[in-house]
Amino acid sequence: AEMAAGAERYFCTAGRGLEPFLEREVRARLGATEVDCVSGKVFFSTGAELGELRKLKSGERLFLLLKKHPPLRVFRNKGKMLHEIISLVIGEPKCLLDVISIWRNLHGSEGKKDVSQESQLTLKRKSEGTNIAAKRQKTEEVRETVSEECQVEPGERCVVPEDSNQDCWTESKTSLGDASKSNEEEPIVNEQLSFRVSCRCSGAIAKILTSQEIGRAIGIALMKQFGWLTDLRNPTLEVFVHLNDIYSVVGIPLFRLPLANREYIKAAGLRSTIAWAMASLAEISAGAFVLDPMCGLGTILLEAAKEWPEACYWGVDISDSQLEGADVNIRTAGLMDKIELLKASVKALPLPSESFDAVISDIPFGNKFKITKDIELLPDILQEMERVLCVGGTIVLLLSQDLHKRMDSITKCAENDSSNAISEGAHETGSAKALSVDGNSSSLGNGVEESFLSSRQTRFGSLVPDGIYGVSLGKTDAFIYKYRKTAGNW
Fold it and tell me: Could you tell me which residue ranges the THUMP domain spans (predicted)?
């Protein structure tokens, strides 16, 4: 298909399992075309402005696409291999300068402001990260947030320059003129831009060269080609190179910080991209009442209220400290009029039956739900969620591996115990299928037990399974479960 006039080519990285959510979002939010989804990335074309691009909620980092090629030919000779890689990046210098020109045009007058603000946020994040690491008191979710920011896939390494203690970057500094006026021979120098190369490498090439060697070689080649100078501390521009056995990708990130770093979240809890994906499954409509009965720091409620502000949100938690953190987040986000907080136990919610249109919750992974008797509370928790949910409403839960196994055993019990399973279940197949964000059926490929979806009715009487999504939390995997309530309380 032809790319629409004025549209540029992009790709956005995504946490494992969130690619279908991101694919749906770029189509709906950006009117994207030529959408191509691969593991960890979604490629697309759009003519959207920078402000719209910045609103993406399910992606990690957004890049202008410079090159997307099949895997490079592999040479055992390092010199030949480096020559092949360098040719990929700057074999057509005008292409690189054209993409830089697009990058600058997108940022326009806000470019310098954007860079300075993000630079300050980066320093703040590093400082906070150091303090937290020293205290060793981060929750599992926050630890995983940090681990995912670099977005390193299995078998890949970030570039770490010899003379820098920074994670992930080889950096260079550039004196680059207006790229739109530049040609291959004589770039016009009228503004300082800092520059760095980041490289990820896996597969056959990684057995010959390290990411450091590749990043260093590309940096030197770019300096020779354009006369750019190195600067290790404050890069404005980055060239991102990802090489594996599936594709060869080169791009320029639009923003210094990941899209997943929300400016409205003061205290980080559940990863924001996961929270948004969960909320997107809940079918929130104007005037709906939405409950998170184990809200923690309120990340799910924040993501939902920002995206669907015409609904009313309630957060419940038994912990004073969690509620205090949630209150800070809600005030920081300016959502005091949208979200109400209440101290109570999820096992005995002081709320009327059938009073909420959606229940969304991250069943805690930390100290509360280690492999102990606490896991046995899951049926009680589900029963109470079912009680407060309206008929036709949805429940969306995030479950750890252990809770996922427990849920599977509950559903197996349902197959044996439920003598009045609804007749509509007869047409359901046992294949592991899940609804993608746009409601179309899509194969999971996560090894989800067939018994879950083959059981059309749970022991809770009216909750019908409506999809399972395997997602990554960095070091661990988790599962998003969706249910729909089909009948009134017993």
Answer: 144-254
Residue type, 250: V
Give CA separation, 287 vs 218, 238, 281, 317, 386, in Å: 54, 44, 17, 23, 20
Does 129 reside within a domain?
A: no
pLDDT tens digits, residue range 12-67? 999 999 999 999 999 999 999 999 999 999 999 999 999 999 999 999 999 999 99
- How far is residue 22 from each of residues 26, 37, 149, 255, measured CA to CA in Å? 6, 9, 17, 18
Q: Is 174 helix (H, G, I), strand (E, B) or coil?
A: strand
Range of the domain at 471: 272-485
324 and 247, same structural domain?
no
Task: Give yes or no for residue 411 having a pLDDT over 80.
Answer: no
Count of C-beta atoms within a 10 Å radius of residue 9 = 18
Quick check: 164 and 216 in contact, CB under 8 A?
Answer: no
CATH code for the domain of 402: 3.40.50.150
* Percent of the chain surpassing pLDDT 90: 55
Q: How far apart are CA 298 and CA 165, in angstroms?
A: 34
Which CA distances in Å does 359 have to 134, 138, 284, 345?
36, 27, 10, 15
What pLDDT digit, counting tens, does each position of 104-123 carry? 898 874 444 444 344 444 44
